[in-house]
Structures are given as structure tokens and as C-alpha cells.
Amino acid sequence: MLEELLRRRFTRGEYHKMGEAGILSEDDRVELIEGEIVRMSPIGRHHAFSVTTLTHVFVTGVGDRALVSVQNPVALSEDSEPQPDVTLLRRRPDYREVDVGPEDVLLLVEVADTTLNYDRRVKLPLYARAGIREVWVVDVAGERVAVHRQPGPRGYRQVEEVGRGQRLSPEAFPGLSVAVDEIL
Question: Domain boundaries in the chain?
Fold first, then answer.
């Protein structure tokens, strides 16, 4: 007879209280995914390079038209608060008082060095259900970027893969052209 494992799921409020109580620290590489505290993979050299380059490209490319957020949380629901690698946010004066939510995200980027399957199977469906309008998954090993648009409850309806030698542009900033080679 198999024994059923009992799991305790957490809300975002409880997750934040763990941080306030010192159970979780800023140095813990964890995120809240569907009520579970999930350990994030260590950041490797290729991953760090892609995140740093994307940050530079976006900061110089969007200027004051958006905020560039690096590895910071996005409150998707009461039980999910992932920390995507790079996020372009609409400008708001009240981010000190309110959490970043799906309505604030203009573009979300996940860089997948060792986490491609997890990003595709777990995070992408969460982002689509939350209504994140555009997600790029940078596949470091596969040397391509999957661009996901038109979110819905069953996932993204439009997916395009862009490889080396090609360029891509965020839907919110069509004048910003990013070379795939530059971010890989």
C-alpha cells in the first residue's frame, strides 16, 4: 500500500512572512510556484552573460519608456511569485507600495541554461494563465529564443523560434531590434 505524501502549500503572504522571520533570506535562491517553495538553479556563466546583455540592451533600448527589472518577483496569483530573469515593466509611480503584477509586465524573459524543461512545462503555463502578454525563453544550449505571445488559459497561442543570425523585437517596443547572437 502506497502512502500518500501530505504537502503544505503556502500563500504569497505566508512566503513573505517567512522572509520577515528570517526563515528565508535574500540569499536563498527560491521562488513560490503554485504554493510550493522551489529552489532555483545556480546561475552559470552563460546564464549570467545572457541576463547581463539583455539588461544592457533593454536599458539602452527602452530608456524612460519602461523599467527593466532583473531577477525580481512578479506576483502572478495568491500562490505564485516567480522571479524571472529580466522583465520590462510599464512605468508606475507606486511600485514601493504595490507588488508587480501581470498587468505591469510588457515583456518577461527566462534564460534557460539548465532549466529549459522546467521553464517550458511549469513557468510558461503559469505566465499564460496570468495573462503575461509576451515571454521570451532564451535556450542557451539550443542557441535560440522562443517568443511566446497571445496568452490564454491553455497556454500561448503564438510561438515563434528565432535562432542565430536573426533578430527579434518586443511587441511593446517594435522599434527595438535585438540580435539573437548578441544575447547568446
Answer: 42-183
pLDDT of res. 1: 57
CATH architecture of 42-183: Alpha-Beta Complex (3.90)
**Short-list 8, 25, 47, CA closest to 140:** 47
Which residues, in sequence order, are CB contacts of 85 under 8 Å at separation 6+? Answer: 47, 50, 51, 54, 70, 71, 109, 110, 111, 138
Locus of grid cell 508606475: 92
Q: What is the pLDDT of residue 175?
A: 96
pLDDT at 2: 63
| Cα angle: 122, vertex 58, 180; to 5 degrees | 70
